[in-house]
Specification:
- The chain has 436 residues and is of the alpha/beta class.
- It has a domain of 284 residues: Rossmann fold.
- The strands form two sheets. Strands 2, 3, 4, 7, 8, 9, 10, 11, 12, 13 and 14 form an eleven-stranded mixed beta sheet that branches.
- Helix 2 packs across helix 3, helix 3 packs parallel to helix 11 and helix 5 packs antiparallel against helix 6.
- It is found in: Secreted.
- Pfam families: Peptidase_S10.
Length: 436
């Protein structure tokens, strides 16, 4: 099939296998929906990766259709018919088997009888672990494949805890044994304090004046998350920052009124995306086709079509209208993931951490700071990595087997804006060993 050829949405190139895995005492209690796509190279020998999108509560369909999967939406004017899909030539499934899983419960097409009781960071950790072992029981042909956890954005909080729980389960003799090799995190929230670096990042990128930067630092005293409502001078400065109309997800990209509210919420709140629901799932009008979120709009029109849901084997009556991100009633009971990185490093767990260097949601400088705080020596110092002879980004490797990489000119998240560079980084500049 030609890579530019349009695809019949009903003929989705997803492996014909189970769409749900049941958790809990009975399978009726909790049902986890997923998309599984085999490697185009050598599925029996290539790595197996479970992918979690951020949010918390954004469907892994985002990773599949907008970031690293084999399909993407053709950006064209919406006229009421089903949006068209085309193949993504830079799909990570060219060299890796990927399970795109809808967790936490309530995300995408995953559902539960008592949903509110199942939505928290730790519940997400436990459910992902349970899902994976059960999935491998259904698919024993992948038991020997090297396994990795992949995640981005908010999932930088629960993902390292998932890795730790899998390791603990292996040590306790839980079956089936998981051939865990490491993890990779893109533009990851880690400390829950990343917002405090966005002012310095914006100033360093010449997006705000020296005077406003100095005033913000003086009046807010370096605290831009939990702002005292009585601190009028700080609030005034923040309002001036808002008026800079910065697209936080990619500072060079178009600033769109449709997602302005979401962007400012993302800047000043601990939970990055509390307004995803309003911004991405409840548009009263079609977004500007020039905006990044236009693709999200097309995705909702496509996946809520009855014929598509039937092709995906979605169980009737379990989920109403599909939302790209469902953020309601989520309990944030893991304050940060740094301690898990400490533990995993001590246990020799390999990792790749990457950042789009034009991302102001989780600035690369925030990520570099917590990596430095792990206090491991550098074994391969800062150097460029290349794509077709040009710099795709920069990388550095530490003695704890952690690699940090930037993707030049990319945003939040990196492969979404720079697919060529994202794929090259995944294949060539990370600890996963590819086969051929």
């Amino acid at each position: 099939m030609n890579l530019t050829e349009e695809i019949d949405p009903v003929e989705i190139v997803i492996v014909r296998c189970r769409r749900y895995v049941g958790l809990g005492e009975t399978d009726d209690d909790m049902q986890v929906f997923y998309y599984f796509i085999k490697s185009e190279n050598n599925p029996h020998k290539d790595p197996l990766m479970l992918w979690l999108t951020g949010g918390p509560g954004c469907s892994s369909f985002s990773g599949l259709a907008y970031q690293i999967g084999p399909l993407k939406f053709k950006i064209e004017e919406y006229i009421g018919s089903l949006p068209n899909l085309v193949l993504r030539p830079q799909s990570w499934t060219k060299v890796c088997n990927i399970i795109f899983v809808d967790l936490p419960l309530g995300t995408g097409f995953s559902y539960a009888k008592n949903l509110t009781a199942q939505r928290s960071d730790w519940k997400l950790v436990h459910h992902t672990h349970q899902f994976l072992r059960k999935w491998l029981i259904y698919h024993p042909e992948f038991l020997s494949n090297k396994f990795y956890i992949g995640a981005d954005s908010y999932s930088g909080i629960p993902a390292p805890a998932i890795v730790q729980e899998i390791l603990n389960g292996n040590e306790k003799g839980l079956q089936p044994w998981i051939n865990l090799q490491g993890y990779l995190l893109g533009n990851p929230l880690t400390t829950n304090r990343e917002s405090n670096d966005r002012i310095s990042f914006a100033h360093g990128m010449a997006l705000i004046s020296d005077e406003l930067y100095v005033s913000l630092r003086r009046n807010c005293e370096g605290e831009y998350i939990d702002i005292d409502s009585k601190n009028k001078m700080c609030l005034t400065d923040i309002h001036s920052f808002d008026e800079a109309r910065i697209n936080l997800f990619h500072i060079l990209d178009r600033y769109c009124e449709d997602d302005a509210g979401m962007q400012q919420e993302a800047l000043w709140r601990r939970s990055l995306f509390q307004k995803f629901k309003a911004s991405f799932s409840a548009h009263l009008t079609v977004p500007d086709i020039r905006c990044q979120i236009y693709g999200f709009f097309l995705g909702e029109q496509w996946i809520n079509d009855e014929s598509v849901r039937k092709a995906l084997h979605v169980r009737e009556g379990t989920i109403g209208k599909w939302r790209r991100c469902y953020t309601d009633d989520f309990e944030h009971d893991i304050s940060g993931s740094f301690e898990f990185h400490v533990n995993l490093s001590a246990r020799g767990c390999r990792s790749l951490i990457y950042s789009g260097d034009h991302d102001a949601v989780v600035p690369f400088m925030s990520t570099q700071a917590w990596i430095r705080a792990l206090n491991y020596s550098i074994v391969d110092d800062w150097r460029p990595w290349l794509v077709n002879g040009q710099v795709g980004g920069y990388t550095r490797t530490y003695s704890n087997q952690m690699t940090f990489a930037t993707v030049k000119g990319s945003g939040h998240t990196a492969p979404e804006y720079k697919p060529d560079e994202g794929f090259a980084m995944f294949r060539e500049n990370q600890p996963i060993e590819m086969n051929g």
